[in-house]
Amino acid sequence: MDRKPGTTFSIKKRLILLLGCVAIGISGASYVLINSVVSQTVVATQDRLLSAAIASIVDNLYSEDGEVSLDLPYDTFSLLGAIGEDQVFYKISEKNTVITGYVDLPKIANPGNVLNPSFKQFQYRGKAIRLAAVNYPLIINGQTKVITILVAQTMNFQDITLQKISKNFIPIVIIFTLTLVLLALGAANLITNPLNEFATKVQRRGPNDLRKIIQVVPEEVIPLVEAFNDLLKKLRGTLRQTETFIAEAAHHIRTPLAVVKSESELALRKSRTPENREHLRQIIRSVDQTNRSATQLLDHAMVLYRAERPDKTGVMINNCMAGLLQQLAPAAALKDILIKVNDETTGEIFMEVDRNLFETAIRNLLDNAVKYSPVEKQICVNYSATKHHYKIEIKNERIGVKSLNFRGLLKRFKRGSNAAEVPGSGLGLSIANEAIMALKGDLKIFQSRGNTICATVSLPFS
């Protein structure tokens, strides 16, 4: 029972998943990074505006009659409030005394100076604010007093700006991610294509094609190709050993069989009793049958060997067919069978084929047609050619059989139900089929009308 190989997540899917995750990660990191940069930029902008507001307050801060006086720069506050419709809060105090502004505005532990204010974010009255704080020394009546100036602004501007940027940037991130995913898919295809091409090249080979695979592949795939070629080499070696054994066994069987047949024929001439003569004839028939089986075993071994490395030469098919029919003529004449040839081709047909394989296939088909045809019947051999194929049809009547399992007849040592009285080994059609397959051709056997059997051979010109 054949077992299918176990499978795991495919290499292509792994690459796509890995590269897709990398693409999504890069896109996410880019979004977070750009969002962070933009946020820092917006905060820095807000800080500069707050610094400018503090500088404006400092410019309008002075002492009068021993008191701190201030002309609030309302235009500056209006500008801050107009940006993003933010609210502006301020507080000016001297120590713990609030001079003006929002009394509950949070303090900063270490306020800066005018040139370098301190900034901090707070939650104030349910809103996020950005607060700037400075300590400004003011001389009043010859004494230096430290005035603390706090200016705060809600962060609507920052939030709105980030939302707008995010809204515009998200489509860019999506497009960038899809582009990276498509690139990942292309990279995965590029990586797996050599493997797919290698698999396709192996699948296109016939069952008898054990030639070394020669293909330009990336360095990473070379070990796979070399391992596969090593396996083919071992299979070729095993096949040659088997073929050699079959050929030698058949040869060693035929030699003693020839001696047995000669001795039996000599004994048949000298025998006088009918029982002995019939017994000797049965021995001679059995020897002939065994000899035929040995010959077909040799043919089968030859077909298997040449199928691996066919020796293609230029062959005149018409002349080759005429020679085969001439060889078969004596056997047909013994049964008074007429071989009728119908050549529909025009001129000589020249093909590049292995002549031995071609002759072995056609000889076995013609031999079968003669063997299984009734006496005094006709065998029709038709030749035809199309643009791409050369076609040979061999038609003959069968002996008393209405239907046959034609698929089974192409298997080794399989014979029809009408073959009991006809000598044979069940290898002829199998040899013919394997030889034609080695020639990249096609063999079909079917029952056309009545007891007429048609064997059709189709061979490609190239």
Indicate the topology:
Blueprint lengths: L10 H49 L1 E4 L2 E4 L3 H9 L5 E7 L2 E5 L16 E7 L2 E14 L2 E12 L1 H48 L18 H49 L3 H35 L3 E5 H18 L3 E6 L6 E5 H17 L6 E8 L3 E9 L8 H4 L18 H11 L3 E6 L4 E9 L2
Helix pairs in contact: 1-3, 4-5, 5-9, 6-7, 7-9
Characterize the structure shown.
It is a single chain. The chain is α+β, with helices and mostly antiparallel strands and 462 residues long. The chain folds into 3 domains: 14-163, Beta-Lactamase (2-Layer Sandwich); 205-308; 310-462, Heat Shock Protein 90 (2-Layer Sandwich). The chain has helices at 11-59, 74-82, 156-203, 222-270, 274-308, 317-334, 355-371, 406-409, 428-438; strands at residues 61-64, 67-70, 88-94, 97-101, 118-124, 127-140, 143-154, 312-316, 338-343, 350-354, 378-385, 389-397, 442-447, 452-460. It has a 5-stranded antiparallel beta sheet, covered by helices on one side. It has a 5-stranded mixed beta sheet with strand order 9-11-12-14-13. Helix 1 runs antiparallel to helix 3 (156-203) and helix 7 runs antiparallel to helix 9 (428-438). The radius of gyration is 50 Å and the shape is rod-shaped. The model has no long low-confidence stretch (mean pLDDT 79).
